[in-house]
């Protein structure tokens, strides 16, 4: 076998620990999204369909029901055009993985297939096909539907770990008591927030991280609602100043920071910050970075500057079935970058060394930080 083949084999076999998703365990009922209509109304595809069919206004699109929205997306992006974007290629990968025709003229076959699926078996099949051993959800107690599930006493499938999302919770009047309440109820593996610019979080947040030994995840560079007409598809990106992140890491050496940046221009700077501060762990190729060309570039940069001491990827999946494509596609990019770094070694690695490194990168390091 060639080096590339040996690396791909090890990366494909390495169990995944998915550090950030918007998935919900089956115990969350309708919040657990799956099936072809959910796949096709993923906000990435909505934005792409509205570009491809500009005569359809966002308002007219959102006035349709979900099936009619999915039909429009299918026609615009899969029938009239080839699925060349990462999000469309992903749907094609998922359909193909289930033996469905990604070039079908309509969604009848796919809808009939998913209609026959039972959610419990579907969850098992998707996790198996994607090679995902554990994942973190995104849990926001200010969301009434999610809050109701937690207050019902539901116990999530143990492979679905909680992550307490603070974007809205930080506005609480008594943040400290809200944090205590939801940390006790959810047992989250980390606290998380998305920001446009880096600024110190409220003191109560870092106090809670220390008190419960929880990492704090900062997702930096998002600009919300640059086009409000697109709803959840309307967010944009900006390059952030990372000097405040250095200060945060320096001022809180006993707090572990999980960090991902949305702008390609911040990738290199984050690697440098991580070299200066061992309590900063770069993770994933977030959102607009989650494309094969950028995953390979980013993973190369991180391997060159950090060695295998970071988490190359998270899926950010919102629909259960997306785990299949997001991890199949990303494994290819990570394997390519890893192979290129091994080629730079004067003595090639053994199969055992390749397996050790692949397992650390695909799940080991994330698992340590997730406590999974
Ligand atoms: O803030 C986030 O966690 C982002 O991932 C947003 O949810 C975004 O809409 C998304 O789904 N990106 O993949
Ligand atoms: Zn996300």
TrEMBL record:
What is this protein identified as? Glucuronate isomerase
Taxonomically, the superkingdom here is Bacteria
Question: Which organism is this protein's natural source?
Answer: Sorangium cellulosum
């Amino acid at each position: 076998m060639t080096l590339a083949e040996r690396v791909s084999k090890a990366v494909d076999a390495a169990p995944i620990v998915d550090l950030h998703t918007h998935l919900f365990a089956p115990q969350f009922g309708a919040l657990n999204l799956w099936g072809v209509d959910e796949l096709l109304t993923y906000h990435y595809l909505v934005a792409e369909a509205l570009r491809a069919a500009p005569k359809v206004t966002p308002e007219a699109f959102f006035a349709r029901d979900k099936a009619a929205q999915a039909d429009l997306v299918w026609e615009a992006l899969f029938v009239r055009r080839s699925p060349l974007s990462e999000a469309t290629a992903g749907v094609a990968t998922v359909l193909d993985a289930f033996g469905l025709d990604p070039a079908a003229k309509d969604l009848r076959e796919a809808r009939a297939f998913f209609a026959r699926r039972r959610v419990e078996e579907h969850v098992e099949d998707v996790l198996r096909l994607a090679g995902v051993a554990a994942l973190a959800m995104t849990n926001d107690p200010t969301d009434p539907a999610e809050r109701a599930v937690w207050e019902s006493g539901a116990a999530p499938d143990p492979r679905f770990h909680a992550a307490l999302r603070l974007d809205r919770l930080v506005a609480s009047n008594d943040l400290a008591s809200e944090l205590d309440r939801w940390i006790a109820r959810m047992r989250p593996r980390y606290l998380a927030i998305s920001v446009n610019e880096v600024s110190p979080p409220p003191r109560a947040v870092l106090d809670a991280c220390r008190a419960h030994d929880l990492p704090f995840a900062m997702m930096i560079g998002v600009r919300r609602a640059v086009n409000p007409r697109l709803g959840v598809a309307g967010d944009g990106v900006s390059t952030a100043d990372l000097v405040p992140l250095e200060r945060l890491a320096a001022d809180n050496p006993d707090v572990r920071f999980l960090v991902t940046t949305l702008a390609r221009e911040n990738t290199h700077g984050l690697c440098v910050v991580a070299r200066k501060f061992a309590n900063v762990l770069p993770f994933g190729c977030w959102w607009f970075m989650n494309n094969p060309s950028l995953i390979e570039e980013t993973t190369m940069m991180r391997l060159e500057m950090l060695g295998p001491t970071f988490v190359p990827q998270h899926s950010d999946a919102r629909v259960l079935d997306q785990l299949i494509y997001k991890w199949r596609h990303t494994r290819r990019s990570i394997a390519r970058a890893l192979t290129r770094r091994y080629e730079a070694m004067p003595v090639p690695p053994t199969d055992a060394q390749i397996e050790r490194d692949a397992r650390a990168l695909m799940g080991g390091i994330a698992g340590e930080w997730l406590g999974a």
